[in-house]
Each structure stands twice: as structure tokens, then as C-alpha cells.
Amino acid sequence: MSSALVLGYYTLTAVILSVGVLKLGLIPLALLFECRRGLLFTRYGKLSSLPPGIPANAILRPRRRTRASRHFGQIPDYRVSVIIPAYNEEVVLRACVESIVRSKGNLAEVVIVDDGSTDGTARLMHELAKEHRLVQAISQENAGKGAALNRGIALATGEILVFVDADGIFSPVTIPWLLTGFRDVKVGAVCGDDRPVNLDRVLTKMLSVLSHLGTGVVRRALSLIHCLPVVSGNIGAFRADLVRDLGGFRTDTVGEDLELTWRFYGAGYRVAFEPRAIVLAESPSTLQALWKQRVRWARGLLQSIKMHWRMHGNPRFGPFGVFLLFNFLTMVVVPLAQILVLAGLLYFIPAGLITFGGEEEATLIGRTAMVVGWIGIGITLASVVLGIALNTAWRDLANLWTLPLWPFYATGMGLTMLAAVAFEIRGRPAKWNKLQRTGVISSGEFSAILGSGS
Predict the structure, then answer these.
(1) Which of 59, 217, 326, 379 has its CA 20 to 30 Å from the CA of residue 360?
(2) Alpha-carbon distance 372 to 344, whole Å?
(3) What is the pLDDT of the chain when averaged over all its residues?
(4) CB burial string 363-400: b at 16+ within 10 A, e below
(5) Quick one: CA torsion of 340, 343, 345, 348, rounded to 10 degrees?
(6) Is the dihedral of CA 280, 285, 291, 296 positive or negative?
(7) C-alpha distance from residue 307 to each of 11, 25, 251, 258, 419 (Å)
(8) How far is 166 from 282, CA to CA, in rounded Å?
(9) CB contact set of 288 (below 8 Å; sequence gap of 6+)
């Protein structure tokens, strides 16, 4: 029995380590993504002070002007409708809307759909509609985020639909950056970069650092190989005709943005990542809020897998079908395996099967556990630093001191997947379960980003 348990421990450890090694392949892909665009380590410039050789509607002042000119060309002249689903968003809604109406580009309207809020959201959105001619205020009984989004889609007139949560704050050039991705007719949707705005707590500072792993490295790499699995509901642009042809958002899932993205791939389109289309949004500021958010995300993934299991490994969907198998391994299997490995230690150590001295076999297992742990931390640290560099978010280097907390965070994320699996098996109802907004807006990166284009 003990031998079987030891073998199982070895197997799970090998799976986790193998996936970690495979993820190293994302690093050169992320670098290639930027190098192909000629924008490696470039920052944001002002629309009013463009250098020679770049079109008047370009949105960056790069160090390599020639390459940037070739990359941009002309931004597609699409009319854009921004849709904001709102449920108890009184604290943050004004800042969101006022940042959007200051956007550069051909903005058709900003549609706010109040989904039966119980605070002052409805009153505030009608005030905003009176103050800004582009703002439309719509109220409906509480029906969920998907229903609110579909109501906005039905009223929107733009050729491109941009969906954003009510806590999102745009830079003046967020929308033009999003539009650059639609020059390729095969691109059905473009995902931007959502970054934390409330850097007032240890937790949010840690999340601000780790967010660069996803947006700085993973999204770039997966976009390059046409396998980006989600267009974030907080900063995503979609071709309006395709959204309507595919029936809009489903209302029976908490992962409506993920599920719609997979349907786009199923329809033969792909999605792209535009890292310079930035929106600042609130991160969970308490452990309870973080837990609720990540369990909701995990449930959304599980529900999308259930709805689209036929796509997994299916060559009809090109590289994305193959990628979905890897995605299932990394997002579902590995987190659960990590929990089992950690739980196994509670048995192995008291039983003397894992030690850091003594019998050769036990010592080997203990050393293996240490090596895997240090390798994982090292890979994560290197990837985070690279993401910060690619995003030119140098201020976040000051928050690398949160490194000792990262293993606890990783363990917690594994537990959220375990909880999500349990909730799905039990058929627990899925609700908005949105964050409690704080309205906190930190300085620093906020000023650097939102100052661009001014």
C-alpha cells in the first residue's frame, strides 16, 4: 500500500513538473509576439505629438518608428459601442463612464444596463445620460450579467462592441488600440489588458505583480499561436455582426465571456491580444472577495468545458482544439494534483515515507518535493519579471517583495478549483457574485497610463 502511494506521489509530482517545463515555452513565444510587431519594451506616447512617419491616427510613440509605422498602418474606421452591465455599481460607475466618453476614436454610444441594482446605480446612470449625449441608460429587472449584456447588444448600433465592467477605467487610447486588431478579417474579437487600480493593500499589490504573468506573458504567447482562450469581459471588443449571428451571451453560465470566445473559435474565427489597450479595474481587496471571484472563474471554466467538450482535441478547430486539451490539463488537472500532493505530505511525513535524511528512498522523495517547489517558484518569478518588462510596468517591480506569499496564493487557487468542482457536482446555483467595489484609485501606473493620449 505504501509503495502504491509513493508511486502515486511520484506520478503527480512528475505531471506538475512536466507542465511547468512545457510552460517555459511561453516565454520565447511572448518575446516573439512583441518582436514581430517591432514594439518590444516601448511605452505609450501622446496623440498630439506623433513623430514623422506614423499615421495621424496611430497611438504610440515608439523608439523604432519605422517598424511601428509598418505595424500600424491605418486604424480601422469602425463605429464603436461600449456596453456596461451594472449591478450595484454606484461607487465606481461615474469614473468608468467619464473615462470612456473621453476616448479617442469613433464612439457611437455608451450603453449602461442596470440589472436591478438595489443601490443608487439607476439614479447615477440617468444623471450620466443627461450629462453626456453618447450615454444611454437602460434599466431591467435582475436577470444576471449575461442578460444585461444581451440587452445592451440589442440596443447598440456600432460595428464593434466593447464590453467592460463598471469598475473599468479606460485610457484615451484604449479603444483605438483595440481596433488595431481588427485589420485582420479572421480576427473576430480582441482582448485588451486589464490591470489593478486599487494598489492600497498587500493582497492587491501581490495581484498587481502576478497579473503580469497572465497579461504580459501568457496572453502574448497564446495570441501568437492563435490559441488565446478568453476575451476578458472587462476589456474585450467583438465584431457586432458575429456576436449577433452566434446568439449573444449565454445566460446559463458564470463564464459568459469565456464561453462566447470558444464559440468564436468554433465559428472559424480567432481572437487577438492587444497589450496596449489598457483598462484599470479593481482587484479583490480581501481574501473572501478573492475566493469568490476565483471560484466563479473556475466554475465558468468547468461549465464551458462541459458545453464545448467536443472541441477538445478536435482537429476541425485547428491548433485551438489541441490547445484546449492542454488548457484542461493546466487549469483543472494540475491545480487539483497540487492539492493532492500537498495533502499527501500530511500522510507521508508522519508515516516516515518522506524525510530529509535517513532512508535513501524517503530522502529522495523529500528532495524531489523541495526541488519541484523551488523550480516552480523560480519559473514563476522569472515569468513575472518578464511580464513586467514586456508591459513596461516598472513600478510593479517594487512589489516583488510579495514573493513569499505566492506559494500560498497558488495553493489557494488550487482549492478554488476543488471548490468549483464540488459546486458543479452539487449543481449549486451560479449568481453574479461580483466584487464589493471600494472605489479606490491608486496613483503611479494610473497616472502613467491614463496620461497617454492626453
Answers:
(1) 379
(2) 15
(3) 84
(4) eebbebbeebeeebeeebeebbbbbbbbbbbeebeebe
(5) -90
(6) negative
(7) 30, 29, 13, 11, 20
(8) 10
(9) none
Q: Which of 61-75, 368-382, 429-443 has the lowest mean pLDDT?
A: 61-75
**Percentage of residues of the chain with pLDDT beyond 90:** 61
Query: Tell me: the pLDDT tens digits for 322-374?
Result: 999 999 999 999 999 888 888 877 766 666 555 555 555 555 555 665 666 67
C-alpha span between 388 and 216 (Å, rounded): 7
Give the HSE-up count for residue 178: Cα atoms under 13 Å, Cβ half-sphere: 38
The confidence score (pLDDT) of residue 50 equals: 33
**Cα of 226 vs its chain's centroid, Å:** 16
Residue 321 C-alpha cell reads as: 482544439
Q: Find all residues with CB under 8 Å of 397, minimum gap 6, and list them.
A: 385, 388
Grid cell, residue 164, equals: 467592460
Q: Can you give the chain as a three-state secondary structure string?
A: CHHHHHHHHHHHHHHHHHHHHHHCCHHHHHHHHHHHHCCCCCCCCCHHHCCCCCCCCCCCCCCCHHHHHHHHCCCCCCCEEEEEEECCCCCCHHHHHHHHHCCCCCEEEEEEEEECCCCCHHHHHHHHHHHCCCEEEEEECCCCHHHHHHHHHHHCCCCEEEECCCCCEECCCHHHHHHHHHHCCCEEEEEEEEEECCCCCHHHHHHHHHHHHHHHHHHHHHHHCCCCCCCCCCCEEEEHHHHHHCCCCCCCCCCHHHHHHHHHHHCCCEEEEEEEEEEEECCCCCHHHHHHHHHHHHHHHHHHHHHCHHHCCCHHHHHHHHHHHHHHHHHHHHHHHHHHHHHHHHHHHHHCCCCCCCCHHHHHHHHHHHHHHHHHHHHHHHHHHHHHHHCCCHHHHHHHHHHHHHHHHHHHHHHHHHHHHHHHHHCCCCCCCCCCCCCCCCCCHHHHHHCCCC
Residue with cell 479583490: 284
Measure the CA angle with vertex 219, ends 289 and 435; round to 5°. 15
In the beta sheet, which residues pair with residue 45?
Answer: none
Q: Which three cell numbers stand for residue 211?
A: 497579473
Quickly count: other Cβ atoms within 10 Å of residue 454's Cβ: 11
Q: Which amino acid is at 14?
A: A
Are 148 and 121 contacting, i.e. CB atoms less than 8 angstroms apart?
no
